[in-house]
Amino acid sequence: MKIEILEAALAAVLGERAKKLVRDRGELTLTVAAADYLGVAQTLRDHADLKFEQLIDLCGVDYSSYRDQDWEGPRFCVVSHLLSVSKNWRVRLKVFCADDDVPMVASLTEVWSSCNWFEREAFDLYGIIFEGHSDLRRILTDYGFIGHPFRKDFPVSGHVEMRYDDEQKRVIYQPVTIEPREITPRIIREDNYGGLH
Questions:
Q1: Pair type for strands 129-131 and 104-106
Q2: Partners of 129 in the beta sheet?
Q3: Tens-place pLDDT, residues 104-144
Q4: Which pLDDT does position 187 carry in this prediction?
Q5: Long-range CB contacts (within 8 A, 24+) of 65-69
Q6: Residue 115 and residue 55 in contact, taking contact as beta carbons nearer than 8 Å
Q7: What domains, with CATH codes, occur in the chain?
Q8: Model confidence at 190, in pLDDT bands (50, 70, 90)?
Q9: 3-state DSSP: the chain helix, strand, coil percent, rounded to 5?
Q10: Are the beta carbons of 95 and 115 closer than 8 angstroms?
Q11: For the CA atoms of 30, 33, 36, 40, what is the dihedral angle to 10 degrees?
């Protein structure tokens, strides 16, 4: 099978730089150390046996309460999905940030230019710093926004809201005016609901 050929090629080419190589549900996930991340990315793109020409996605992950359990290990991870058009195969590349307080990994913009905005998004939403990125600034939240909203410890409602003020003719910030509430789901107790007996 093609996935077995790819798995063998990754193991042979990367050797010890492949910290973990997992085949699950017909997909391969390769985990590498932060120190090897950039070098492995270049190898994945350039090696004749691999040829991952395209980065098709990159995102951040906060593992602080993975599967509603305490997580043993680094908190922040960057996950990329790579595609080889010439070989017609894919791999998921994972790298954990070494420092939870200042999560940082190398930028891959010099390897795949398509990750530029993806890295900016991961920086904006998770606070992951991509060392060497030429324009690392917020992309989805407002420039004055404080915090990173996809972190699991980010407050659900926030503390500040913005609106346009007609009198001042500008955007203003003010304390949140929404009253916090707890939403309790309805429970259907009808005996014959949906035609079920």
A1: parallel
A2: 104
A3: 999 999 999 999 999 999 999 999 999 999 999 999 988 77
A4: 62
A5: 65/152
A6: yes
A7: 2-195 (3.30.460.80)
A8: low
A9: 25, 30, 50
A10: no
A11: 10
- What sign has the CA pseudo-torsion 159, 150, 73, 39? negative
Q: What angle do CA 17, 20, 23 make, to 5 degrees?
A: 130
- pLDDT tens column, 32-60: 999 999 999 999 999 999 999 999 999 99
Instruction: Output the CA torsion 135→137→140→144 (10° steps).
Output: -150
Compute the C-alpha angle 186/150/177, nearest 5°.
65
Q: Which residues pair with 22 in a beta bridge?
A: 29
C-alpha dist (Å) from residue 153 to 75, 84, 139, 157, 175: 12, 37, 21, 12, 20
Name the helix (H) or strand (E) containing 121.
Answer: helix 115-126
